[in-house]
Fold this sequence. Notes:
This protein is mainly β. It is built from no helices and 20 strands.
Amino acid sequence: DRGREVVFASSDAVYLGTRDVRRFLFPPEKADDDPERVDNIVAAALTVGGSILVSDEDRDRVLRFDPKGKYLGTFPPHDIGERSVTRILVDPEGGILTLDRDPRLLRTWDENGKLLRTVGPAGLKKPYDVALDPFRNLYVADEELGVLVFDPRGKLLTTITSPRLKARAVTLEASGAVLVYDRRSERLLRFR
């Protein structure tokens, strides 16, 4: 199940699993120029179809590469302008989620780049991270609002918060507990 493999992005590489490290080249604008390394990677994901999506902070775009690292174009294929994508996830049905910190949108796309649904900007103030549960509910860590939980259609179900919480990262335990990194206290908090 390719979309569920562990993907870790460092500034200049994408790690697929524990041993497969990929670095990427962006094609030159002029034929006689050399390709440029993609060396400011913020997020990455491996799609169900095998493409590697890379959020490049220098270019403010999500770039698509084939499994061998050949550049295939931007994602989505039609240019939607500069984007500050800080997270990319693949849901259990193969939908591709991108969290744009600016303009504060969480979008779900199909493999071809067709927009399926959008959450935000209403209801989001300072989103930093997103997680999915097995039912495709979205957990958005928002530094000003806590953790907002949306159903798969984008309807707000609940908000997880505590006094002075500055949610910076969110993940889910197998038990269903929600783990939140609080920037203010510099602690990992657990909510049931």
